[in-house]
Design brief:
The complex is a heterodimer of chains A (876) and B (112). In chain A, 54% of the residues lie in helices and 16% in strands. Chain A is an alpha+beta fold. Chain B is an alpha+beta fold. Chain B has one domain: Winged helix-like DNA-binding domain superfamily/Winged helix DNA-binding domain (Arc Repressor Mutant, subunit A, Orthogonal Bundle), CATH 1.10.10.10. Chain B contains 4 helices and 3 strands; from the N terminus they run H-E-H-H-E-E-H. In chain B, strands 1-3-2 form a 3-stranded antiparallel β-sheet. Chain B is globular and about 55 Å long. Classes of the chains: A alpha+beta (876), B alpha+beta (112). The interface between A and B is medium-sized, with 30 and 25 residues.
Chain lengths: 876, 112
């Protein structure tokens, strides 16, 4: 109680210092007057009485000071004085202040950006109920070359009845459904889920309810939950949507709820359907992943151990489906993170290095400044300032720089983060990159710790300085080399860190450029893609009907004036799935393991439409699309070379071993085409193509090479489709080039971000090197003056300084390269196409760093060489 | 010069509170004069040191002050004991008595 009042009273006093002092002075004057009167009454003369009274009261000023100390918070006032002094002294030396503040701001800004992503991806709790105890359950089938594979409902049942590691488990799958009956038919992405999924995750609906256990039962009505996005676009955010019936795949569903766009678990889903009788009827279909909640006491390791035993039991009971299939669990975060974990960690490593560089810069500048201020310190010490006071003064200056730079940095960093979040495609799922309370605290903690560490370092280096030679103030410390080692060490650290970042970025950029410069094998410009998925109705039961539909459709599209050529395929290049095959006349590579390749079903004219060169043999013709025609196949060049090295592939036989497709026919190779890449960032496998009709499939992607405006083309094509099949959704509607760019934005984004940060690191390091070299040479002014006076040529002095810079550059670069080699050997396992031993990159980055350091040295060296010995020597 | 004892830290506070309790509202000079009188010259009170103590006591809410007019017609700041100050005085007096009696007994024992 008293404590609070005391603090309030003191704070109040702090704010109205002047008034209280005046008040007290008046009070003291009254005191002296009263005492004087008494003394006069006792018989003293007025003058003597006044003198006596003053003596007995003590000096007014001292009393005021004493009282002030009592009244206010002396340490705050002290701090205020130190702060004012610090600001004044920094303002006297704006170059130092601005350099220190800006390099720190850059470091902190970079760190803020990196941290926002690190925190969002790796630290911030997932927005689900008890998110840290949620795991994904998947399968792996090493013998089939798949390390992440889907699960089946049969496995779900087995886990539910026999596993003790989980107290809740739900299955999730995706499906395409067609929404009709509205303004236009839409193809939607549905998330097909166990009815208890949303309750398990703690996801709350925006309207209506989430699924309950009754949903999905055979006896229950068909229900659906809409996503907010679809609810707004297709239903105009209708508040009466709950209870309405909508038509999906020609069946009626009743809407029971709307999920918010921020639900986080299935960011791409338009609607949610419960797993129902249709799905239950096919328990062996491998199309799910499971989300499970660890039971109390269970760990991921224990769960994996249990799942291993369970997998063996399931494989024994269902050998056909489950032989070689192993169930495993991993933290939900790890699953959702996908490939982002390592890049984010490396990114944070880089920005931390930038921050360290910035802090080192501030420390270097501060140590150098305090060394050059030894004269000032000596005078202060002789005037009665304690060692502690001087060190405190330096620390307060450091704090001013740190807080200013840090605040600027955080503001700038948040701004850049917002910019990045706005620019990057939204595929973040449950991850959010805004900094909440704990995130901000953590970031500030990191930055402050860094600043404190370097502050302590510079304070330590200052306490080792002697303040005691005021007479030699100006030149004190000139001859001493104690802190020269510290300065050089910091500069070498800066150069080596910058080289590390440079080499790392160089290697990554080269990897990315190498991949990007690989010809994709086809021409993606001016190609519009549209996906057509024929309904599973009787009309397309016969393969010939689907073939006929696509043949007619492409013919009609081809007749449009702006269309140059049209064909269709599934899948397009850059998306694909591999398949096992057997080739006649080729040795099996590994015993028991079939070779695998990418495969696609294509319509005649596909190669010409995408401008994939036909190297040998022929393209498919209309004849090949008939079910009765001889089975044929077209292979890519690398497939042909790998399978029949040194021989022509034409006339050879291949069969594709599609699971569950019955006896696969032997196909005759009729053509060899150029290679196309299956993906930008994965090793190449080679492709094989079979003609549509062998087999006939109902889902194909149109590839339309066109001239002019694609928006108009989309309208025209849709009209053509709907003339034949009015309720058929046509989606994707994307340019092939955009599609590819969107799919592979991540590595490119990382390359750009890393380049920016490494440039920053180099710039910050250069500032540090420049400061060290120019400071050291400025300290040696007198020495240079003497050298010049006794016959050194300016060139020799110039070389002297330059040599110092060169030494820094050389040692720093060497250390940086060794570090880079170590780090990049780890990173090359993460980034495809990065070779850690690319001598060219090392040489370029080394040369760049050396050149930059020499450039930073050139100015001080030039200045040193132009010293006028007479002026310098007279100075003392 | 015989040692005049310096005012122990904390005892001055107690003296001020006690004086205000006995005498009623007083200005700074009145307080100083009264304390010197009671101590009968045994105490070297640098009268200025009274003022930090007064600020301290006021900030703790044990006394309050206001400008007024002295007997001689001068403007002066008058200090008054508050209720909290009175309670503090009782508690301090009690503890001071205990301490001094312990010290007294302790020192007597030493002598015998």
């Amino acid at each position: 109680m008293i404590g609070i009042r005391l603090v309030l009273a003191k704070l109040r006093a702090l704010l109205r210092n002047g008034r209280d002092d005046a008040d007290l002075a008046q009070e003291l004057a009254a005191h002296v007057d009263l005492l004087t009167e008494d003394l006069v009454r006792q018989g003293l003369s007025l003058q003597a009485a006044r003198r006596q009274a003053r003596l007995r009261v003590g000096g007014t000023q001292q009393v005021v000071l004493l009282t002030r100390e009592q009244r206010g918070l002396p340490w705050i006032e002290q701090l205020g004085r130190d702060l004012r002094l610090a600001v004044r002294s920094l303002r006297r030396n704006p170059l130092f202040a601005v350099t220190a503040v800006v390099s720190l701001a850059v470091g902190v800004a970079a760190n803020t950006v990196g941290f926002a992503f690190l925190y969002g991806y790796l630290i911030r709790p997932l927005p689900f109920a008890d998110g840290s105890r949620l795991v994904s359950v998947l399968t792996a089938a090493p013998s089939r070359g798949v390390d992440r594979w889907s699960t089946t409902l049969l496995e779900l049942d087995q886990i539910r009845t026999r596993s003790r590691s989980f107290d809740a488990i739900a299955a999730v799958s995706v499906a395409d459904v067609d929404l009709t009956g509205g303004d236009e038919p839409r193809r939607l992405m549905a998330s097909v889920v166990s009815p208890d999924l949303h309750r398990q995750l703690g996801i709350r609906p925006l309207r209506g309810r989430v699924f309950d256990d009754g949903d999905g039962r055979a006896t229950a009505g068909q229900v659906v939950i809409l996503g907010e996005r679809l609810w707004r676009t297709a239903f105009a955010a209708d508040d009466g949507i709950v209870g309405r019936a909508i038509t999906l795949d020609r069946r009626s569903y009743s809407v029971v709820g709307v999920l918010p766009a921020t639900e986080g678990f299935s960011p791409h889903a338009d609607i949610w359907l419960p797993i129902g009788p249709d799905e239950q009827a096919q328990p062996r279909e491998r199309r799910y992943r499971f989300v499970a909640h660890l039971a109390p006491g269970a760990t991921v390791d224990a769960a994996n151990h249990e799942l291993e035993v369970l997998s063996a039991a399931i494989a024994k009971a269902y050998p056909e489906e489950n032989t070689g299939v192993r169930l495993f669990a991993e933290h939900l975060r790890a699953d959702l993170l996908d490939d982002n974990r390592e890049p984010v960690l490396i990114l944070y490593g880089v920005v931390s290095l930038v921050l360290l560089l910035a802090c080192a810069n501030v420390a270097t500048l501060l140590v150098m400044r305090s060394a050059s201020r030894s004269g000032e310190f000596a005078i202060r010490a002789s005037l009665g300032a304690g060692r502690l006071q001087i060190v405190r003064q330096v620390l307060v200056e450091h704090a001013v720089v740190t807080v200013t730079g840090g605040a600027l940095g955080v503001v700038a960093g948040v701004w850049v983060r917002d910019l990045l979040v706005a620019v990057l495609p939204q595929t973040a799922g449950p991850f959010r990159f805004t900094l909440d309370g704990p995130g901000t605290a953590l970031l500030c903690g990191v930055v402050l710790m860094c600043a404190f560490l370097f502050g302590a370092f510079s304070a330590w280096s200052i306490t080792r300085q002697s303040f005691s030679v005021p007479g030699r103030a100006g030149r004190d410390g000139e001859a001493r080399a104690d802190r020269a080692g510290v300065r050089t060490g910091l500069a070498v650290f800066e150069v080596s860190a910058a080289v590390l970042v440079l080499v790392g970025t160089g290697l990554m950029l080269k990897g990315a450029l190498h991949v990007a410069s690989q010809p994709p094998g086809f021409d993606s410009r001016n190609v519009l893609t549209m996906e057509i998925n024929l309904p599973e109705s009787n009309r397309y039961q016969e393969p010939a009907q689907a073939v006929q539909f696509f043949r007619d459709l492409t013919a009609r599209i081809g007749a449009l004036p702006q269309v140059e050529r049209v064909s269709a395929a599934n899948p397009l290049p850059y998306v694909g799935w591999n398949i096992a095959y057997e080739a006649q006349g080729s040795q099996p590579t590994v015993a028991g393991q079939r070779p695998r390749t990418m495969d696609a079903v294509v319509m005649p004219g596909y190669f010409r439409t995408l401008r994939i060169p036909l190297l040998e043999g022929r393209d498919f013709s209309e004849v090949d699309t008939r079910p009765t025609s001889a089975p044929v196949i077209v292979v890519s060049q690398s497939f042909a070379r790998a399978t029949w090295p040194g021989e022509s592939a034409i006339g050879r036989r291949v069969r594709l071993l599609r699971r569950g497709a019955g006896e696969a026919p032997w196909r005759e190779v009729v053509g060899v085409v150029g290679d196309t890449r299956a993906s930008t960032f994965a090793p190449e496998r080679g492709w094989v193509y079979v003609p549509h009709g062998q087999p006939a499939i109902t889902e194909l992607v149109l590839a339309i090479r066109f001239n002019g405006d694609h928006a108009a083309l989309i309208r025209d094509v849709r009209k053509l489709v709907w003339e034949v099949e009015p309720a058929l959704p046509v989606h994707w509607n994307d340019l092939l080039a955009d599609l590819i760019a969107r799919r592979y934005w991540q590595p490119r984004a990382y390359s750009v971000v890393f380049s920016v940060f490494s440039a920053l690191a180099l710039a910050v390091a250069l500032v540090g090197v420049y400061a060290v070299v120019s400071f050291t040479s400025a300290r040696r002014t007198r020495e240079f003056g003497i050298r010049l006076a006794i016959g050194s040529s300016p060139a020799q002095v110039w070389q002297l300084v330059l040599r110092q810079g060169l030494r820094l550059a050389f040692v720093g670069t060497a250390i940086g390269m060794v570090a880079a080699f170590g780090v990049m050997r780890l990173a090359s396992t993460v980034f495809f196409g990065v070779s850690p031993t690319d001598g060219w990159v090392y040489a370029t980055c080394g040369a760049l760093a050396m050149a930059a350091v020499l450039l930073a040295t050139a100015t001080p060296a030039w200045r040193a060489a132009r010293i006028d010995p007479v002026t310098v020597l007279r100075c003392d | 010069m015989p040692d005049k004892s310096d005012v122990l830290q904390g005892t001055l506070d107690l003296m001020v509170l006690k004086t205000l309790d006995v005498m009623g509202p007083l200005h700074g000079y009145g307080l100083a004069r009264r304390i010197e009188q009671v101590a009968e010259q045994a105490l070297a009170l640098n009268q200025g040191t009274l003022y930090p103590a007064l600020v301290r006591l006021e900030q703790r809410g044990w006394i309050k002050s206001a400008w007024g007019v002295s007997d001689s017609g001068r403007r002066a700041r008058f200090y008054t004991l508050t209720k909290a100050g009175w309670r503090q005085l009782q508690a301090e007096t009690e503890s001071w008595r205990k301490t001094s009696s312990i010290m007294a007994r302790f020192l007597e024992e030493e002598q015998t």
